[in-house]
Design a protein that fits this description.
Blueprint: H1 2-19, E1 20-23, E2 33-38, E3 54-62, E4 72-73, E5 83-88, E6 93-99, E7 104-107, E8 112-115, E9 121-122, E10 124-131, E11 141-142, E12 151-152, E13 165-167, E14 170-172, E15 178-184, E16 190-197, E17 202-204, E18 212-220, E19 223-231
Antiparallel strand pairs: 1-2, 2-6, 3-4, 3-5, 3-10, 4-7, 5-6, 7-8, 9-12, 10-11, 13-14, 14-17, 15-16, 15-18, 18-19
């Protein structure tokens, strides 16, 4: 009987993994940007999109001993904080890219919007697939069912002040050195990525749109700075 139960569990895990694939795999809070794919084999039994090419992911992190609580999560009242999960006609599947550690979250119980603090132990990553109007959604889905592993957020990834500021669509740098500059919208979608050595103290970002919030991630020799910016 034990062998039969183990066999059933193994096959159930394969079945779930076939529906949702996370890369890299295994994955944890220090893995950087992950790609999540749903339905590449035509199986939409976890959540039926009913032909809708535009879905959303509501995400959260479990960082304490209670697996039933999401200690950091998106703002359920504001779908702009969700992750865009759209149908990719080339891959014939729904695809999203997410920088789990670099995103900003509502922190329980204060509901303040914060970056994930350094040395936070992230036990699991949770997500829900939903329609854009939130009229339908999947059950709670656990990253650990798809390769997520518990880990402590590295100090190297934790947010530091590198002296970079944003004014309108211009980034101001206090040091002339090599930087990796990443620009995300509030859904976590990567809008722009630049790798360059700054020989000047400013960089104009022409892809920024007025009256739009962005998450800006700057990686330099001294660490990583992540901040939220509103381009008036």
């Amino acid at each position: 009987m034990k062998h039969f139960i183990l066999f059933c569990f193994f096959n159930a895990s394969l079945f779930l993994s076939a529906q949702i694939v996370i890369n890299p795999n295994p994955v944890d809070i220090n893995s950087g940007i992950l790609t999540i794919t749903y339905g590449s084999q035509g199986d939409y039994s976890l959540f039926d999109p009913m032909g809708d090419p535009n879905l959303l992911l509501y995400t959260g992190l479990q960082t304490d001993a209670d697996p039933l609580t999401w200690d950091y999560h998106d703002d359920f009242s504001d779908t702009n904080t969700f992750v865009v999960f759209n149908f990719d006609t080339t891959l014939n599947a729904y695809v999203a890219q997410i920088d789990v550690a670099g995103r900003m979250y509502q922190e329980e119980p204060s509901l303040n919007v914060v970056n994930l603090p350094a040395n936070t132990v992230v036990n699991d990553w949770y997500f829900i697939i939903a329609t854009t109007d939130l009229s339908r959604q999947s059950a709670d889905l656990k990253g650990s069912d798809y390769g997520w592993q518990a880990a402590t957020l590295s100090n190297k990834i934790a947010n530091k002040d590198l002296g970079v500021k944003a004014v309108k669509n211009v980034l101001l740098f206090s040091k002339k050195e090599f930087y990796e500059i990443e620009l995300y919208d509030l859904t976590g979608r990567l809008v722009l990525k630049i790798n360059r050595r700054m020989e000047e103290d400013y960089l104009e970002i022409f892809t920024m749109q007025p009256k739009t919030f962005y998450i800006i991630k700057i990686s330099g020799l001294q660490g990583q700075q992540v901040f939220k910016h509103y381009f008036l």
